[in-house]
Amino acid sequence: MNAEIIAVGSELLTPQRLDTNSLFLTQQLNDLGVEVTTKYVVGDNRDHVADTVRRAMSRAEIVILSGGLGPTEDDVTRDAVSIATDRKLVFHAEIADQLEQRFRQANRKMAEVNRRQAFIIEGADILPNDRGTAPGQWIDDSQTSIILLPGPPHELKAMFSRQCLPRLERVVPRQVIRTLLFRITGMAESDLDQTIAPVYTKYANPVTTILAGDGDLQVHLRAHGSNESDVMALLTEVAGPIETLLGDRIYSRNGDSLEAVIGTALKKRQATLVVAESVTGGHLAQRITSVPGSSQYFLGGFLTYSNRLKTDLLGVSEEILQTHGAVSQEAAEAMAVGARRRTGATFAISVTGEAGPEPAENVPVGTVYIGLADASGCQVAHRVFFGDRPRIRVFATQMALDLLRRKCTLVL
Amino acid sequence: MNAEIIAVGSELLTPQRLDTNSLFLTQQLNDLGVEVTTKYVVGDNRDHVADTVRRAMSRAEIVILSGGLGPTEDDVTRDAVSIATDRKLVFHAEIADQLEQRFRQANRKMAEVNRRQAFIIEGADILPNDRGTAPGQWIDDSQTSIILLPGPPHELKAMFSRQCLPRLERVVPRQVIRTLLFRITGMAESDLDQTIAPVYTKYANPVTTILAGDGDLQVHLRAHGSNESDVMALLTEVAGPIETLLGDRIYSRNGDSLEAVIGTALKKRQATLVVAESVTGGHLAQRITSVPGSSQYFLGGFLTYSNRLKTDLLGVSEEILQTHGAVSQEAAEAMAVGARRRTGATFAISVTGEAGPEPAENVPVGTVYIGLADASGCQVAHRVFFGDRPRIRVFATQMALDLLRRKCTLVL
Fold first, then answer.
1. Residue extents of the structural domains in chain A
2. Whole-prediction pTM value?
């Protein structure tokens, strides 16, 4: 079954505001096995809203509108749905009375405009609103259920959960839905897709989605079926070959972030970590310490943005800086080794590079060297990222974390 | 003139993701005097997208699509617009060659699927993408301009600003629109609103908007009119009293971030800066170094997440740590003074605190001390923030930056 969601309100078409009700509604609908196929944001224009409702009705079995049920002239949802469904609006005196009573209890006089909220579309079921003044409405119109909900999130959520969900559960064909998630790093989105497309494109169920951002990739598999064991069998059938193809580029199967995976591994090893950051300027440490409890393994480190501090704090020799430059394999190694020596940590990771905007040090913008030192020595990895300054910095942290992940999640 | 915006991507129909590109686009269009009347989010379904494009074309003079231009089978925007406009897709060998060259420069082999990105709709103008692989496209189809932009925000923003805006400016009927922006910190959103509402609520033009996030506030004034001097007079009439009311809580009038304002002030003074971070774990330095050219004044610093490194690297005495604790005025002072002494920087700023989730050190979660040392001594500021771990950490960096801003932007 498919749903479309229409958010009504001109304020949601300004540069400052987003419709977030649809995220809640999507989660609830997906959990029932209903897909959301289109979302709309429409201003407070009766004809635009009516036109959008008509379109959604022609495409989906469930159409949910949020907002535009208030008392002012800008609140056009009732009128618009009345036009789209060709049903009259009927005044319900008992709703007006309840509203009036509500205002009286709050020691306020009800403004006349509030009576607008007592108009109900012919044949609609009234959804009482115990958190606000505007009642919701539910209309079954031939093939489509049209649900009108108030815009304020706490009103919408309560009304949907208590009144709409139980009713939808009776309508939507029962099915079991299960998801699997792989988190992956160290490859481009297009490479990931090319690698696993031969597997997943053979299946419409599970649905496979690839998400990418900042060098971090996710593969979501979502399967549905009539019983748990069928659904799990479907998921395994697709997930198995994907796991084999991706191997250790998968860093998480439970949703954990890269920094959390590293934290778990370091705690298990009772190992400690320090950093020596140049180009990333604190970003690497910030990600590491974003994990609650990271003080158990993260000691701290050095921000050696200037050459002088590379020498003073980490003992990177003048000779290295002059011969090879601060952005070099030699500098990355000296930084990591120096940081480890001065703190006694199990692992030290260093990042040096050039994020631009201006090239410097005779290396192209995007050049990054990562050093990883432990008791066995120091390895250095090198990459040239393209993109702007923020992108280069975040890719450098991702690469550093992944290098550490591969080292510290090795079986002891 | 009206615009409709279509975000393409099934991932934007999941409970986890929102289309935020439309906020940027709306801002840019509004600044030209173009209203956004409907926004859509449509999944990776060619026919749905084509159908939506057709509808938008029948309603608006400008239709902007974002996303779905990538190399994979899921990327349906090119095909969909080709169907909606009844125009062929034409392969451009020179685009494929450029792509291949780009991959080669990054020492990678281009996956074959990337050639999909070289298909251009017949009659479209190509919008080169210097931040990614997918070129944009611009089609003038009878009454409507259809603009295809890549989904990644940094690619979309650059392409729209540099290539689409100048072109739209020639098409959109001229009216004068001017905006003023104040950036403010050190007060709550509700306090800000209560302070300035008596001024701005008297005016429908300019429109006043307050935005808040992470302890950082913005007041936007947007005025329109037929000529420059009228519009500027309107803006000044409202901005003047607002400036008086807010005083030095305004840190920027040109949009510059707090970290950029600090950078400008430090360069002017030829001063240098180091940090000593505990609770913020690198976040403060990351913000400072996000400013291009920050290496001119930022030397680096110390990440002293553990007590041992506070002692070893900064010389915070065992006595302070035992008597007062690592989260104390005394520790913040010793950290800042120690960091300054060991580096010779003009200013040293320290952050120590407890971000939770578990309380520790006998201080409530949210406790933060900031130390700011210079030649004249060290001042320490103290706050207890409420909220979760990420919120406490970002508010701590904001407070540290503002303390430094107030110090280093003082007239010499």
1. 2-171, 176-252, 258-408
2. 0.78
